[in-house]
Amino acid sequence: MGSRVRPIAASLRRAQGYSFVELLIVCAVILILASTVLPLARVTAQRTREAELHRALREMRTAIDKFKDAADAQQIASTDIKTDSEGYPSDLETLVDGVGVPNDTTGRKLKFLRKIPTDPMTHSTEWGRRSYQDAPDATTWGGQNVFDVYTKFQGTALDGTKYRDW
Q: pTM of this prediction?
């Protein structure tokens, strides 16, 4: 007749599916792959937060420097600068709110930041601040002005340095 009859044992073997050993091998391979991918994903996420922290610190420090340059060039109204501030802003909000321009009757303000950046480590806009009069490693703000900013996060970076020392 021309039709071919398959042996019953061969068709039953194909219908049974995977053996237990094959399933164990597949699970072991998946576990090995997952154990290498998860730490890499954590390091990548931490590296991304560190890059965001660098950017936020750079943005605020640049704004502070521009404020100082404008104060030194007398482009800021004297009423907006404290006498003991050494030409630095009195707080971070001053960089956002802006300061008056001398001899300007239009009410124009110089603004140095659109908003205070969020600290990617603490998810807050609360930053550690140092005034010009504070010691370089001070942990409390003297309150006279804002000379520098740092994160309040106590962790250690991937390179082994403390985040607050950046």
A: 0.75
